[in-house]
Design a protein that fits this description.
The chain has helices at about 10-20, 40-50, 95-110, 135-145, 150, 170-175, 200-215; strands at about 1-5, 25-35, 55-60, 115-120, 160. The chain is α/β, with parallel strands linked by helices. The longest helix has 16 residues, at about 95-110.
Length: about 220
């Protein structure tokens, strides 16, 4: 079985991809270069793809900076020290990003005759993004059935979200059980010039919370 895995270079996508591999899928990894503020996460994705021995790693440039609307694709300051429990959608939300990413994965899946897509979205410890919710994933599966030749001909695409109901601590514990090295990942929205995480953006705060609640040290911060 072949699956498309969306691989960002972060902790969640690494874990989701590793779960897909454990479940017996041959992995084809898709990393979207969407005009994000830094390339460190793309470099991390390359390393992770090698570690997971993916069949193919496609890096696809789709520059969303022209659309804007997000601190991740513009010079707008990344929010720091925010209450990550807030229900307000933050400035780091990239308009329709997961819709775009899943559409690209769906197109590649049709070409490769794959029917499974893995994405590391999470609906518990996350920043309130609307495209991380279960109802969005279900709606996209319906779209895939209606909007593709394979779907019209009877194929069923499934979008796997193995992390969607887990806390960040639960995700980390699951990954550690699989022997994952989270020192390979980067979760920061706005790393320092030396590539180290800022420690104050939503992603850094959620990551720190997850490792703290899991009772283990973040290997990225050791040394």
């Amino acid at each position: 079985m072949r699956a498309i895995v969306l691989l960002s270079g972060g902790l969640d996508s690494y874990t989701a991809a590793a779960i897909a591999k454990v479940e017996g899928f041959t992995l084809c990894a898709l990393t979207v270069q969407y005009g994000q503020r830094h390339v460190r996460e793309v470099e991390a994705a390359r390393t992770i793809a090698r570690v997971l021995d993916v069949e193919r790693h496609l890096e696809l440039p789709v520059d969303l900076r022209a659309i804007g609307g997000s601190a991740l694709t513009s010079d707008t300051a990344v929010p720091r020290d925010r209450d990550v429990g807030s229900t307000e959608i933050p400035q780091t939300y990239v308009p329709a990003r997961n819709t775009i990413f899943l559409a690209l994965a769906l197109g590649w899946a049709e070409v490769l005759v794959a029917r499974d897509i893995f994405i590391g979205v999470n609906a518990l410890d996350y920043s309130g993004y609307p495209d991380c919710r279960p109802e969005f994933i279900r709606a996209f599966e319906s779209l895939a059935a209606l909007g593709t030749r394979a779907g019209v001909e009877g194929a069923r695409f499934r979008v796997h979200t193995p992390l969607i109901a887990l806390s960040k601590a639960g995700i980390i514990s699951r990954g550690l059980d699989l022997g994952l090295d989270y020192g390979l990942t980067l979760s920061c929205y706005d790393p320092r010039p030396n590539g180290r995480p800022c420690g104050r953006c939503d992603s850094c705060l959620l990551r720190a919370k997850g490792f703290r609640e899991a009772g283990v040290a973040d290997p990225l911060l050791l040394g």
